[in-house]
Specification:
The complex is a heterotrimer of chains A (102), B (625) and C (169).
Chain A: H1 4-24, H2 28-50, H3 57-89
Helix pairs in contact in A: 1-2, 2-3
Chain B: H1 2-25, H2 30-54, E1 59-68, E2 74-82, H3 83-106, H4 113-132, H5 136-154, H6 161-192, H7 197-204, H8 212-229, H9 238-241, H10 247-255, H11 258-268, H12 270-274, H13 277-300, H14 304-325, H15 328-356, H16 361-365, H17 373-387, H18 393-408, H19 411-436, H20 452-474, H21 479-486, H22 500-521, H23 535-542, H24 547-593, H25 600-622
Chain C: H1 3-24, H2 28-48, H3 52-77, H4 89-112, H5 126-134, H6 138-159
Helix pairs in contact in C: 1-2, 2-3
Classes of the chains: A mainly alpha (102), B mainly alpha (625), C mainly alpha (169).
């Protein structure tokens, strides 16, 4: 059987890669992709930690399903926002979208 | 006892609700406003009457905790019903009701008619609340509300400079005394944990927890409030100026409410004050001096309302000296009769003023005043009561006061009190003669036929005056009933026995009236008083014994320096600090603004860095490793 | 090497490679393809951990739906005709450093945490999850349904073109 630490390690790396993308990519769509990667890493952790004795395995799966639902909703709204932003600002480059500058 | 308590709550709540309704909703409906106010106060009057009948002896108290404190004690809000408070409530609501009816005529057509009734209702609610309060802090709250309402009423014609200034003066001068009152109440609460009136009176009395020293301190602090409110001693000068308000308001302030609140407080806490004999001696002498001083000022005043104002100060002093000498019954008896005849005098003078459009007595005399029959009857009977002529009410109550002084206060006090009584008779008679007799008739000798509305107004004003005139003849006989009601154990005072004391008083009153007749009343009299032969003395009397000038030169100027210093401190130190803070904030903001570059990814980076650092720190702090 | 470990190893490698492609490549379409690959890998990891149902859902939702939606969004919003501006080196290295630091710190925490490391439990099938959703977690289930409905309507409203010049939708 796979050791717990191996799964957690993979999840941490996935999270780090996602974070890197979130911080570095300029395209909003790419940032959303990175965000989804980070969420997937979180789901992986939840499943790994609830697949051991003493935990309620079905509860972990329920949590992850809810996570997926939220992530899907978020993706749908975010993508439509990108389209709307592009329509008004003619770009989805976050470095140029700085109207909130203080 | 639940019935009386509900009645007491009704008596307070009805005028308050009426005031709120008028001021919030009926400002543009004068007739409805007056109807609401009078109906509410009528309910209050009925409730008070019921209370007097229901509470024949003993006392009842109902309290609800208002401000709970940590140690389980707390400040309560409630009503205290005993013979004193119910009687006072009846007097207050009766006089206020008379004034309200009278004002229907006096204030008719005034643009602020509805506002006037709103303020009157507020005043009535505050005064009834003060009278029925079970707790000294509650008393203070209503005390200040009375002050506020009187400020509003004195300054009712706020667009004229005189009333506005008078209202300010009244408010500020009474506030000076109220500082003492507030400190006294706070001291009591600190020591006792609450300020429930029966309890603190019990604690101050023999066998109570208060040391004599503490009782004396509290009593003198509370006395400051009394002196300010009842216009005694050094703090009286606001009262004559308060004449700038509408005349019915003066009647209200001077008879049973505002100024009587101070007297009532002393009566209410008589147990506490009696336990501080030194303070009582101070009060006795302050009131004796005030009684005589105010009488001298009344002797030279030319304005009828000012004469009445000085006489109020003087008569209040009589009430306080009776209380100071130890008799609640005598002082309160004088309060009741004074409430009746002083309201009567003001309301009568209001009718004259209404017709002559002037407050000056010589000016009124020129407008054929005797044609106002109700007012003439009222002025004469009120003045006879004020002068203390048998069988008018003032005679009996003043006699009770003087008898108390004779028993408990000593010869010097008694002599001063008799002197004041003689002067009172003199100035009362002078007022009557100056107002009603002589005077060159100018203006039209035959007044134009009054319109229907004017007749209605005259009726509205005449009825309360006639009722109160009748009361001056009746109230005097209530003395023994009051005495039995207020201090059941004590010997009822025999004011009717014509001993040496009453004869002296009557003789002095006759002397004063005779002197006034010779100088002002008789045909071909010079219409100048004996004081006028001494211009310096006259000026001294007419100028409030120069007290206002003294205040102007000392207190007001010192306050000016103080406020200039405060302004400098404000502008240089506080504003300087504020400006420095603002500049620093601006600079700091500019520096921080660089962080807010509008770059979302920078925000994310900062957030992640902080969150991770936080997570690590928390984990180590929790000892996970 | 038993089959479970083998499946896990292959899936984990797929997920990480896909993730690297998803963030590292410059073409946004390539990124989406890499993302789909990473999600397949994550689904494989779930499979290895005994959550078959979840693996299927992951593939369906992410590879099937989200990735397709992303393609549409890119087609509607990405100015492909404009040349990409060069990346700033400071930003790349800063992001990499921060991400690596954060991952290292998290790893330290994860490794140090006292997880209950017992034997694996009996996997729960779709039937068990469904039962839980309709009993203990029925409120969460309903909430998610409402959330998805609202998100769908919101997305439609936001992305809709307003009528030219009228300012109304």
């Amino acid at each position: 059987m796979v050791s717990l630490n191996a799964v957690l390690g993979v999840a941490t790396m996935l999270f780090g890669i996602g974070l890197y993308g979130l911080l570095q990519r300029r395209s909003l769509v790419a940032m959303l992709i990175s965000l989804e990667l980070m969420l997937a890493a979180v789901s992986m952790n939840v499943i790994a930690l609830t697949s051991r004795a003493g935990a309620d395995a079905s509860m972990g799966q329920v949590v992850v399903l809810i996570l997926i639902g939220v992530a899907a909703a978020e993706a749908a709204v975010a993508l439509s926002l990108f389209v709307a932003i592009h329509r008004s600002a003619h770009t989805i480059d976050v470095e140029q979208l700085s109207e909130m500058k203080g | 006892m639940s019935g009386p308590i509900q009645a007491a709550l009704l008596a307070q709540a009805a005028p308050l609700a009426a005031s709120a309704a008028i001021l919030l909703g009926l400002r543009r409906h004068p007739a409805a406003a007056a109807a609401v106010a009078i109906a509410a106060l009528g309910a209050g009057f009925a409730a008070s009457t019921y209370l007097v009948l229901a509470v024949a002896n003993g006392s009842a108290m109902a309290q609800a905790v208002w401000l709970p404190m940590a140690d389980g004690r707390g400040l309560a809000f409630g009503v205290l019903l005993d013979t004193l408070s119910t009687t006072m409530a009846l007097v207050v609501s009766a006089v206020t009701l008379a004034v309200m009816v009278y004002s229907l005529g006096y204030m008719a057509g005034d643009p602020g008619f509805a506002r006037y009734y709103g303020f009157l209702s507020l005043f009535a609610a505050a005064m009834l609340g003060l009278v029925l309060a079970s707790n000294l802090l509650q008393t203070l709250v209503f005390w200040e509300l009375v002050g506020l309402a009187s400020f509003l009423l004195i300054g009712f014609w706020f667009d004229r400079p005189g009333p506005a200034a008078a209202a300010r003066k009244a408010f500020i001068m009474t506030r000076v005394g109220d500082v003492g009152f507030l400190l006294g109440v706070l001291l009591l609460i600190r020591t006792l944990g609450n300020a429930t009136i029966p309890e603190l009176v019990a604690q101050a009395g023999p066998g109570g927890a208060f040391s004599p020293r503490f009782t004396a301190i509290v009593a003198s602090l509370l006395l400051m409030g009394v002196i300010g409110k009842s216009a005694q001693g050094p703090l009286f000068t606001w009262l004559p100026d308060a004449m700038e308000g509408p005349t019915p308001v003066s009647a209200l302030l001077h008879s049973a409410t505002m100024v009587a609140a101070g007297v009532y407080l002393v009566a209410r806490l008589h147990g506490l004050f009696a336990a501080a004999p030194d303070v009582m001696r101070v009060l006795l002498w302050v009131s004796l001096v005030t009684a005589v001083a105010a009488a001298t000022m009344a002797m030279v005043a030319e304005d009828i309302k000012r004469v009445l104002a000085y006489s109020s100060i003087s008569q209040l002093a009589y009430m306080l000296m009776a209380l100071a000498a130890g008799s609640v019954a005598a002082g309160f008896f004088h309060l009741v009769t004074h409430a009746g005849f002083k309201a009567l005098l003001f309301l009568s003078s209001g009718i004259f003023i209404h017709h002559a459009h002037s407050n000056a007595m010589r000016e009124i005399a020129a407008h054929s005043p005797t044609r106002q029959r109700a007012a003439t009857i009222g002025l004469v009977s009120g003045s006879l009561a004020l002068a203390g002529v048998i069988p008018f009410s003032g005679y009996f109550s003043k006699e009770a006061v003087l008898a108390t002084l004779g028993v408990h206060a000593g010869a010097a006090a008694l002599v001063l009190a008799y002197l004041g009584a003689g002067l009172t008779a003199y100035y009362a008679a002078r007022m009557v003669f100056l107002t009603l007799r002589g005077g060159q008739q100018h203006g039209s000798p035959t007044a134009p036929h009054p319109t229907l509305a004017q007749q209605a107004a005259a009726t509205m004003m005449g009825v309360p005056v006639l009722v109160l005139s009748a009361l001056t003849l009746i109230l005097g006989w209530t003395g023994s009933w009051l005495a039995a009601r207020l201090s059941p154990g004590a010997e009822p005072h025999a004011a009717l026995e014509l001993g040496a004391g009453p004869l002296t008083a009557l003789a002095l009153a006759g002397l004063g009236i005779a002197l006034a007749w010779r100088e002002y009343g008789a045909k071909g009299a010079a219409r100048t008083g004996f004081v006028d032969r001494f211009p310096a003395l006259r000026a001294f009397f007419a100028d409030n014994w120069y007290l206002d000038r003294l205040y102007g030169a000392s207190v007001v100027r010192a306050a000016g320096w103080l406020s200039r210093a405060a302004r400098w401190h404000d502008q240089q130190v506080l504003d300087g600090a504020g400006d420095g803070l603002a500049a620093g904030t601006t600079r700091g903001g500019r520096m921080l603004a660089r962080v807010q570059g509008g770059q979302v990814q920078m925000y994310v980076a900062i957030a992640v860095a902080v969150l991770v650092a936080l997570a690590v720190w928390l984990a180590y702090a929790e000892g996970l490793r | 090497m038993n089959p479970g470990t083998l499946v896990f190893g292959i899936s984990a490698a797929t997920a990480l490679v896909g993730a690297l492609l998803a963030v590292g490549l410059r073409n946004i379409f390539h990124n989406i393809l890499g993302f789909a690959l990473a999600m397949l890998g994550v689904a494989g990891v779930f499979l290895g951990l005994g959550s078959d149902f979840l693996a299927a859902v992951f593939v369906l939702v992410y590879v099937g739906a989200v990735a397709i939606a992303m393609v549409y969004a890119v087609m509607l919003s990405h100015p492909l005709d404009q040349p990409a501006r060069p990346r700033s080196a400071a930003k790349v290295w800063g992001a990499a450093g921060l991400a690596a630091g954060a991952a290292a710190a998290l790893w330290m925490l994860v490794r140090g945490a006292p997880w209950a490391a017992g034997p694996p439990v009996e996997p729960v099938g779709a039937a068990g999850i469904g039962a839980r959703f309709l009993t203990d977690y029925v409120l969460a289930f309903e909430l998610i349904s409402v959330l998805l409905l609202v998100a769908m309507m919101g997305a439609v409203m936001v992305a809709r073109q307003n009528r030219e010049g009228t300012g109304r939708w």
